[in-house]
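Protocol step 4 of 6: structure prediction from sequence.
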Amino acid sequence: MIASRILYRLHQFWSALVASPSEGELDNISSLLTPPQMALFRQMHRSEQAHSIRVMRAVLQSSDGVQAGPRDDLLRAALLHDVGKSRYPVRIWERALIVLSKAILPGKVKRWGEGIAIGDGPLGWRRAFVVAQQHPAWGAQMAAEAGASPLATALIRRHQDFRSNPGGDLEDRLLRLLQAADHEL
């Protein structure tokens, strides 16, 4: 079990180094996102763009039975769920540090992520942890400003919110689909 988890993380790290969406993939998603939303998407690191496209594909496969309007909001949320990270980009070694720290010291990582953003951004050694924890709220704000629907905005804001007893309303059902796809990839 541990060996497979290590191999998964090594694959994830390698993918983050080399992943990049093709022009065809970018053309395909531009029909789903408005021009301001597409501009947000393009602000993300290329590996984050590729990850978001994979999450969108996984969501699309698992969203049978979801009506077209809410499904489109879910797909937009999948594409923009990590856009808040573009506000204060995290270097690849910082991403690795976050993943390792979450595995070893999850409680401390949460506290470190509650750091204060001062001036132009989070400062100090906790910077990467602040970005990791705060990016859902930042991304939701950015998406709302780019015209995302309230449902898509809520999904982005909550995509890392893993409550033990999520509700059964539409938003919660869509959130579970987004979270499953995000954590599978």
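Step 5 (inspection) to follow. The beta strands are 117-118, 121-122.
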